[in-house]
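pipeline stage [seq->struct] | target=V-type proton ATPase subunit F-like | organism=Echinops telfairi | residues=119
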Amino acid sequence: MAGRRKLISVVRDKDTMTGFLLGGIGELNKNHHPNSLVMEKDTTINEIEDTFRQFLNCDNIILILIDQYIGETVQHTPDAHQHSLLAVLETRSGEHPYDAAKDSILRRARGMCTVEDLR
């Protein structure tokens, strides 16, 4: 992994993705596959799962941003990954409310800290 650029991947709706692309996260790998997936009304769960799995297995992706709602619907949930150098962040969607109880990062953090640690 040394010497290779590290990437952020995003699975989001068209409007949000436009902002990320304008911010410069858009990349194509040597096979011309993008590091992002724009969610359209006709995007299937299988397409999302395949793309998410590809992102998990790519050695230069270090962060995947995915709608929490979409993360809950894919078979290979963000909780299932075991890569130590990869973070999967579930973010809120404009159409679906964010539920902190379902956030995998917060659940992991709660397991590492006690109330006394936060005082």
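stage status: PASS
auto-comment: The beta strands are 7-13, 36-39, 61-67, 87-91. The two ends are 39 Å apart (CA to CA).
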